[in-house]
Amino acid sequence: MSSDSHLVPSSDESTGSKRKSEEKREKIPIYTTSIAWAAGRSSIFTYLSYFGVVIGASPLEQSILTSVRNLGSNIFQSIWGWLADLKGRKLVMTIGLSTLAMTIFLTPFVSNPFELVLISIIMTSLGFSFIPAWVAFLGDYTSEEKRASFIGFINSIGTLSSLFVILGLGWWMDSSPFPFPAEIALYAESKPVFFIPFLTGALIFTIALASELFLKEKYTARKRTVIQDELHLSTRDLISRNEPFRRLLPINSFFKFCMSMAWPIFPFVTLRVAHSWLEVSILWAVFNLPRGFGQSVGGIFADRYGKKIVIILSRFGYAIVPFGYAVGLVTGNVWWLLLVNIPGGLAFGAEDTAISSYSLDCSTVDTRARYYSILLTFEGILAFTGSLFAGFLVEILLILLGITDKDPQFEFVLVVLLLLITGLRVLGAVLHRYMYTNPLDFELEKHLGSLDQ
């Protein structure tokens, strides 16, 4: 035998090296899809609310727009989750990304709030089917012990990469001949500038769709009778038989009600305090930078110290944001908005990773998408209610004070609402202490108890 034979890789080493190479190739479209999804989503949420204000939406109409987006993006999630578990993740993701690319392309052509409501219903009810399928797809790629870390890492790549898109769009919009709508009189003149972010978003979602087609799906729908029975369980059965999830559902839903009350108010505050689209983009970039950090680090902390503590701390972080916006509106200083977006983004990223991982821990491999989609469905219903409630509350206050949203005194109404929402978010965060610490432990204890009988 040659003396150099020890340099020749063994069969096991060659197989291991080949497997690692295949795993790396598998993850390239995962990274690409995550980046494109986050960037496209940013093009929607960064500018869609401001577009509603510019085309003349009143506070009540703006709350309806926000409510419809919240409801549409979540109300059908249980159906999409069921379909993702029954027919596979990629089919549902393809439906979602195709719809988003089409509807965001058509958005800048609408001319009034009613048309924007209609296109938002289609965009969110069909387009956001991507979310439960994507979360379940990522859950299929990892073990329970490393689930939060993996999901957080993948999502953070997309979030951090989207920063460049947000800042680039802000610079591009400011470079256009259309004015920033700092005053109501400039709203009509500024409308064409929205072709820039929305057409860019359509292109990005098309890239995400192309990348998604190369994903390797590890989940395959089972055909055994027992699995088919699992796949046809009703939503009520899924909830009633799962104590940790049954405890999580109302606590999480109430907090989404508290959260959503601020969403139709934030655009009015931002356009009164910011001075350019680049400033608006920087606000979102400052939010997304710690958000990406929170997704990654939050996942590590959730796996190491528990998902419950990460969720609770994150939701206290959410309470800081409306308070900072109230101070920023009173002082007219955009730096307050920038400052509170740091803990807000950090909380959003960490909580997003922890809550999705917690939901997956409540499920089996064949119910992952449906449990997460049930969570999103209830979130959507309560978020719809919260945003709509905020809009009616604003209208009532305007009537009682005898003013309109065009008067300077409207800022007083906004401040009152923001302080009320701050208090409600604190209350909602406190309620999370009643969650079970670990759904896996609970299920294990129940199983062991049944063995002792």
In short:
It contains 20 helices and no strands. The protein is mostly helical.
Protein model, in words:
The chain has 453 residues and is mainly α. The protein has one domain (27-215, 228-441): Growth Hormone, Chain: A. The chain contains 20 helices and no strands. The longest helix has 35 residues, at 11-45. The chain is globular, with a radius of gyration of 23 Å. Residues 223-231 and 444-453 have low confidence and may be disordered.
Q: CATH top level?
A: Mainly Alpha
Number of extended strands: 0
Any low-confidence stretches, pLDDT <50, length ≥5?
A: 223-231, 444-453
| End-to-end Cα distance | 64 Å
Give the integer mean of the pLDDT values. Answer: 81
